[in-house]
Amino acid sequence: MPFICLLLYLVVIYLRPGEWIPMFAHLRLLPLITVATVMFLGMEMVLSRRRLTKAPQNGMLLGLFATIPLSHLVHTYVGGAIGASGLFSSNVVLYFLIVNIVTSRARLRTTLWVLAGLTALLAWQGWEQAVTGVGWAGQRLPFDHRITWLGMFEDPNDLALAFVMIVPILLSRVFSRAFIVFRLLPAALLMLLVWGIYLTNSRGGFLALLAAIAFYFIKKSKYVVTGGIVAAILGAPLFLFAPSRLGLLSAQEE
């Protein structure tokens, strides 16, 4: 049950139905699902006598969480410390839920496919927004014609990075040893996400895409030169069709 709740949590975070679907407008879906997920996880751990999952990242995340209010407190900005801690706390909760619920290969595969599907939906709605000028949630295409979504994906740069995050996952399926039929869907989703990154016209997103491709093939070939050459060959067409704003990239920019 906690795994199902976690998947619903991800659906709400990505699709944000409470912000554009009237029937969900008055429901606080995210807090409700969060509480339900925590409760079911607690019950499962008590019944199975399982402890919290130990990982090096646990301490790293808590350390980062601690530095956020401290970075404001050193300037005696108490309000900023409280506000920043509140904003980041949802990330901490989501991390610990995932680490303690996604505890098997089957759950990991399911979670990755759900994330890939949700991200592809955002890319599809972005494509429609670019064509019609209006997104699924009624958001207008900005004057600079960069696609957007809602909430944390309202910024085209953040939306682009959400697309990039799924690219290596799909690459691993496209270049797997599975039958060609089983590689067609990942290939189609991959092309959709690359198109979505292009429509965000995000310079950082495009550079992150090239980095993700390079890292994947270097890791896959186990040789830096070989992997770099393959990545360069695949990345060259992307560079030719890079966002128009890439030429404005400067080290002096904020």
Question: What does this entry look like structurally?
Answer:
The longest helix has 28 residues, at 105-132. 71% of the residues lie in helices and 0% in strands. The mean pLDDT is 87. It contains nine helices and no strands. It is globular, with a radius of gyration of 20 Å. The chain is mostly helical.
Uncertain spans, ≥5 residues at pLDDT below 50? none
Number of strands: 0
The helix count comes to 9
Relative strand content: under 5%
CA distance, first residue to last residue = 45 Å
Described by the principal axes of the CA atoms, the overall outline is globular
Relative helix content: over 70%
Order of helices and strands: HHHHHHHHH
Would you tell me the overall average pLDDT? 87
Oligomer designation? single chain
Radius of gyration: 20 Å
Main beta sheet strand tally, sense and closure: none
Structural class: mainly alpha
